[in-house]
Amino acid sequence: MTNHLTIVNHPLVQHKLSLMRETGTSSAVFRQLLREISVLLAYEVTRDLPMTTQRIETPLVEMDAPVLEGKKLALISILRAGNGLLDGILDLIPLARVGFVGLYRDHKTLKPVQYYFKVPDELGSRRVIAVDPMLATGNSSVAAIDLLKEAGATDIRFLCLLAAPEGVARMKEAHPDVPIVTAALDERLNELGYILPGLGDAGDRMFGTK
Ligand code: URA
Predict the structure, then answer these.
(1) Mean pLDDT, range 38-51, rounded to an integer
(2) DSSP secondary structure of 162-185
(3) Any residues with Cβ below 6 Å from ligand 1, and which?
């Protein structure tokens, strides 16, 4: 992947995202839409997986058919909102291993605090896809990627639903080797670190908490 930031400008993604942004959208519908979008984002984030060919027989002839080279994958959910992206991605790549990084954002300092870390083995030989719906200040995303690199990961992608310019800049500065795939780049952060226009708190929208 050569671009640091890829915006998935597909009509289905954009339409579903607009429905998610609306304040009247219920948690059940929000989760369903997030799951649907995550499949489409996963399609994009796996676009450059290494390929090889395999000799197969069709009913008519033999051919060298394109198949995945078999690079091992690890999906890492940045808790808790990252979990909303997992099931859709696993529908598409069911053999991926799954890990979790627990970080919460201190609402005063906006800094991430770690409370959980459990990832698949051999992280260094895997393509790692870290997922979190919201790339806002970038503080927790940068901290999560720091932890994944400390655990041996070298080939990392970051997949999110919405990104703020501030978060993209912070990630580019801290982790220029980690390409970002998102459905939209919004305008800016507000004084509380929420993305504008955004969709509010993704975890709260997903799980019906406040
Ligand atoms: N996290 C969220 O869930 N929403 C934002 O707008 C920013 C961070």
Answers:
(1) 96
(2) EE-HHHHHHHHHH-TTS-EEESEE
(3) 81, 134, 136, 193-195, 198, 201-203
